[in-house]
Amino acid sequence: MSTSNTTTQGVSDSLLASSTFTRLTTPPNVAWPTVTLFLLSYLSYLGATGLAVTGYIPGWVAMVVNTIAAYWLFTVFHDAAHRSAGKSQSLNDWLGRAGILVFFPFPIFKAFRFIHMQHHRFANDQHGKDPDAYTGNGPTWLLPLRWATVDLYYYVFYFKHLSSRPGSEKRELAMVVVFGLVLFGGLLLAGAGEALLWYWLIPGRVAAFFLALSFDYLPHHPRNSTQQENPWQATNNRMGLEWLLTPVLMWQNYHLVHHLYPRAPFYRYLRIWRTGKPAFERHEPLLVDLLGRELPRTPPSSS
After folding, report:
1. What are 263-298's pLDDT values in tens digits?
2. What is this structure's pTM?
3. Considering only CA atoms, which of 164, 120, 123 is closest in space to residue 7?
4. Is the N or the C terminus of the chain less surrounded, counting Cβ atoms within 10 Å?
5. Contacts of 136 (CB under 8 A, 6+ apart)
6. How many Å from the N-terminal Cα to the C-terminal Cα in the chain?
7. What's the CA gap between 95 and 275, in Å, rounded?
8. Which residues pair with 238 in a beta bridge?
9. What is the mean pLDDT of residues 235-258?
10. Which residue stretches of 54-198 are H helix?
11. What sign for the dihedral angle of Cα 135, 141, 142, 146?
């Protein structure tokens, strides 16, 4: 699916075409809530790590804080991948590179952008085109393991496409691999191996598990349709308890809005849905309750 702001599949409703609605779905010059989230997350992450290493707080506290901070930072680099953190390409690229670094030492941000755009284009495809389909395939008992390893699968997916990627992207990939090896190797040589394990690698892995659940599995269950067949049924909105689910799921309880308007900043999803709801409901969107059960569809208006 295209990642432009016009991915409403030909909807010509005047509400969705209005200048007010267009402003809602267009990135601002700088998405300050996203930048603030980035700063808060990194201050928490680095602060907790420093306090734990120096013995001021228990190690388990730092692990919890770092897991939460990594979970938050995914939203930053996810928005940056869509160039939703602002209108500056450099701002998006550097926020993305820094955000992805808490998960592993190789900040392959541009590779992630390609992988993620494939998901948007081919969401729910079961023939290898949607990398995120990995999180929902296989027996139920195996799904948690898939959630914990989805980012590792991304490497497999990406290298299948490596030969067709632009030269600039390949060069950046080579540079970040060297950067990661130097950074990780240097910290190991400095005797920081235990700290790397407890305060970087394990929190990143736990965060990846919950992110695969909240960003990939839950928003696309029960996978009624592929993105190309019917975008209104390929992704869901999880209705109810917005006061709780919105911060816990980082606004991805309204993931359908994200797939319809992928350049909209994450913090506008609910407002976009509520503003455009009369027009959206005519397309019988996939809405589920808190437990993922489909809600009755609103019949299209005959007017």
Report:
1. 999 999 999 999 999 999 999 999 999 999 999 876
2. 0.91
3. 120
4. C
5. 143, 216, 217, 220, 221, 223
6. 29
7. 29
8. 288
9. 97
10. 59-81, 89-100, 109-122, 143-161, 167-189, 193-196
11. positive
